[in-house]
Design a protein that fits this description.
The chain is α+β, with helices and mostly antiparallel strands. It has 9 helices and 10 strands. The protein has a 5-stranded antiparallel sheet, covered by helices on one side. The chain starts with a strand and ends in a 7-residue tail after the last helix.
Length: 319
C-alpha cells in the first residue's frame, strides 16, 4: 500500500493510502492539528458527517480514533479560485450547497452557531493570547480586543435583523473543500469540522469570500454583483426545488425581490466571515505546527473586514 501526504490542509494533516496507482481504492486518514479542539467540536463534526452521508452529501466514514478519522477518498479535482468562477462549475456548487441547506432537522431548529463561535474565539484570544508578553505584534498589527468586541456586538445587532433562515451549513467552503468530478458532472464538499446550523447567508457570503484564495489571497477576485446574482439565482432555484420536493411540491419561481434580498444578506454576512476567520488565524498562529503564515492571514482578513464594512453597510434590503 502506498501512502501519500497531502499538503493543502491548514488545520489538520491528511494522508491517502492506496494500492491502485489511480487511487481508485484510496482511503484518507486525517490527523487533527494541534489544539484544534479549542475551536472544533469533534462530536458535532462526527454527527454532521453522518447526517451528510445519510443524504449522499459526504463520503463513507470508515472509523474514528482518538485524534482523527478515516474515510473514503472522493474522486475528482480539488478546486482553486480560477475554477469557482466558471459558470458550469459554480452552478454545481450552488446546487450542492442548496442540497445541504435543504436537509431538515428533527424537532426544533437549533440556534445559529455564528455568535457562539465568535464569542468563544474572543474568549480564547483574551485568555490565551493577550497574556503572553511574547506577542507585541498583537498590540501593533491587529485591532484591540475592545474594538473587536464592539465589532462583534455591532454585527450581531445588525445581521440578526436581516431575516436569514437557519439551515444546516458547511461553514468552511473554501475552494479546496470542493471536489469536482468532471466525468459524473457533480461536485461534493469535504471537511465538516465547522459544519452545523447557521445562517443561510453566512454560508454563501463565506464562500464568496473564499473566491480570493487562501495561500495567495487576492480580494479583487471577490465575485462581482453580476456574478453573484447569477450564482444566487441558481442557488435559489435549487433550494426552492429541493425544499418543495421534500414537502411534496414542485419547483419554485425566483422573484427579483428574493434575489436582491439574498444578495444583500450574503454580502453583509460576509463581514462576519472575515472576522471569524481572522480570530481563527490568530489562535492558529499561537498553536498550529502546520507550515502556514496564520498571522499574515489574520491581518488580511481584518483589513478586508474594515474595507468591506464601509461598502456593504450601504446596501439596503428591498422593500
Amino acid at each position: 500500500m502506498s501512502p501519500s501526504l497531502f499538503t493543502d490542509g491548514i488545520t489538520n494533516k491528511l494522508m491517502a493510502c492506496y494500492v491502485d496507482e489511480g487511487m481508485a481504492d484510496a482511503i484518507l486518514v486525517r490527523v487533527y492539528g494541534r489544539k484544534t479542539e479549542l475551536f472544533v467540536d469533534r462530536e458535532s463534526e462526527l454527527k454532521n458527517f453522518q447526517v451528510l452521508r445519510a443524504h449522499a452529501c459526504a463520503p463513507k466514514l470508515y472509523c474514528t480514533f482518538q485524534n482523527g478519522l478515516c474515510y473514503e477518498f472522493m474522486q475528482g479535482t480539488a478546486l482553486g479560485p480560477q475554477h469557482v468562477r466558471e459558470p458550469q462549475i459554480f452552478r454545481l456548487v450552488a446546487w450542492e450547497m442548496a442540497k445541504i441547506h435543504a436537509i431538515h432537522t428533527n424537532g426544533s431548529l437549533p440556534k445559529p452557531s455564528l455568535w457562539h463561535k465568535l464569542h468563544k474565539y474572543l474568549t480564547i484570544m483574551k485568555t490565551e493570547l493577550t497574556t503572553k508578553a511574547s506577542h507585541p505584534r498583537l498590540c501593533h498589527e491587529v485591532p484591540s480586543l475592545e474594538v473587536l468586541e464592539q465589532e462583534v456586538a455591532w454585527l450581531k445587532e445588525s445581521l440578526s435583523q436581516l431575516g436569514s433562515p437557519i439551515v444546516l451549513c458547511h461553514n468552511d467552503l473554501l475552494c479546496k473543500n470542493i471536489i469536482y468530478n468532471e466525468s459524473e458532472e457533480h461536485v461534493r464538499f469535504i471537511d465538516y469540522e465547522y459544519a452545523g446550523y447557521n445562517y443561510q447567508a453566512f454560508d454563501i457570503g463565506n464562500h464568496f469570500n473564499e473566491f480570493a484564495g487562501v495561500n495567495e489571497v487576492d480580494y479583487s477576485l471577490y465575485p462581482s454583483r453580476d456574478m453573484q446574482l447569477q450564482w444566487l439565482r441558481h442557488y435559489l432555484q435549487a433550494y426552492k426545488q429541493l425544499s418543495r420536493e421534500s414537502q411534496g411540491g414542485g419547483a419554485g419561481v425566483v422573484s427579483d425581490k428574493e434575489l436582491e434580498t439574498l444578495y444583500v444578506q450574503a454580502n453583509q454576512f460576509a463581514l462576519a466571515s472575515h472576522l471569524l476567520w481572522a480570530f481563527w488565524g490568530l489562535i492558529q498562529d499561537q498553536y498550529s505546527t502546520i507550515d502556514f503564515n496564520f498571522f499574515r492571514y489574520a491581518r488580511l482578513r481584518f483589513k478586508q473586514y474594515f474595507k468591506a464594512k464601509s461598502m456593504v453597510t450601504a446596501l439596503e434590503m428591498p422593500k
